[in-house]
């Protein structure tokens, strides 16, 4: 299978924060943001694999800045590494300043999607070839994050998590 670049899966969703999507402090609900990120990530996974995809895990979410009512929010997702059937998707969330139009980073998250066939069985996907320095950095660290996610899910024994163990041996 031919390798693809992160740009081929890059997916950008821009939308407003409406009153029905806010908490009592008039900021965007965390759950609403998780849903927007899942939607963008699923399209990115689908663009990379051209297969049916399912969310296997949410590996990391950081709500670094509250996003107020009326904000224009951009969710940008791209595949950061492809394994055999699973893909790591990196998601960056930006908020646009109403007056200057300047975008600031509000949040980031990492999801894992798996490509499956019509019966739900995992299926092989194309490899990913990172291009920029940031893409290379995210690609390099993805195996470590995959192993951590599998250990936490009880699907890998800690003793087999070679990349994680290497962190503590440096
Ligand atoms: C074209 C452009 C426009 C498109 C425009 C339309 C777009 C339209 C898109 C619609 C897209 C809708 C997207 C809905 C997304 C949901 O919401 S899906 C609903 C929520 N998710 C689910 O229901 C999934 C339920 N879980 C499962 O089906 C199975 O557990 C899974 C995920 C298929 C994995 O099955 P399994 O038996 O564990 O299989 P296994 O072979 O052990 O693992 C498969 C791979 O997953 C990895 N894996 C499994 N668990 C984990 C974990 N916890 N952490 C990390 N990796 C894991 C394994 O390491 C393995 O990786 P590879 O080495 O093969 O790469």
TrEMBL record:
Gene Ontology terms: cellular component: cytoplasm
Keywords per UniProt: Hydrolase
GO biological process assignments: acyl-CoA metabolic process
Position of the signal peptide: none
Molecular function GO terms recorded: long-chain fatty acyl-CoA hydrolase activity
Pfam families: 4HBT
HotDog ACOT-type domain boundaries: 7-119
Sequence similarity: Belongs to the acyl coenzyme A hydrolase family.
Name used for this protein in its record: Acyl-CoA thioesterase
Species this protein is from: Christiangramia salexigens
